[in-house]
Amino acid sequence: MNLIKVKDYAEMSQKAAEFIIDKVRSTPGLKLGLATGGTPVGTYQKLIEDHQNNKTSYHDVVTFNLDEYIGLSGENKNSYRFFMNNKLFNHIDIEKSNTFIPRGDVEDIISECRKYEELISKHGGVDLQILGIGGNGHIGFNEPGTSFDTKTHVVNLADSTIQANARFFNSMEEVPTQAITMGISSIMKSKEILLLISGEGKREAMKQLLHGKISEEFPASVLNTHPAVTIIADQAALAD
Ligand code: F6R
User: Fold this and answer.
1) Which of 65, 67, 117, 165 is catalytic?
2) What ipTM goes with this model?
């Protein structure tokens, strides 16, 4: 894994945006894997600014998001579809029909999992996957204990994840307890991975990722076995 150390969240966002813009410009029809959560918001803001100032075009880019809450439709302001439209897609020249996020509001969720996996394969797989990391080492919503062989699947969210996500909801009761997520093996099929880590709250996870053993009890540890991972981490996450 290639580790890029930066000062703070702002520098992480700037560096990550430059990394992504370079790929968008050099790879026609880039298949870009995206994440939600607080970590990539600054990066998305930088992509928007660059699109406005330098006219980087996303017209031919196809995106696949990692995950979505079960039970929320795309119109719900807490859904990841709403988040992505709001934080990125509405502000760049991407075709909405080329932006894919697993659906959490369909009746047959098992078939949705299969279809999402097939969709990614049909497009030739993800070229560059953006990831954040949970304090417990989750990637996507693959919580500790998830098999490294998983494809897109339905998960019960860990209590710590529900608590961490509660900041986006009016009350704890509203936080969904299940999600549909790309699996570990789906993520590992990406040709390249960019993992963003910022803040004190990620310090333990950072340490375990770099120095801990590779184990399903710490999902992100699998990234040590991927041939092309870049981590951009800030001082707060790196300090011991
Ligand atoms: C989001 C996702 C999650 C987050 C992780 C970190 O699509 O898949 O794995 O990346 O929970 O979230 P933040 O960035 O809010 O700390």
Assistant:
1) 67
2) 0.99
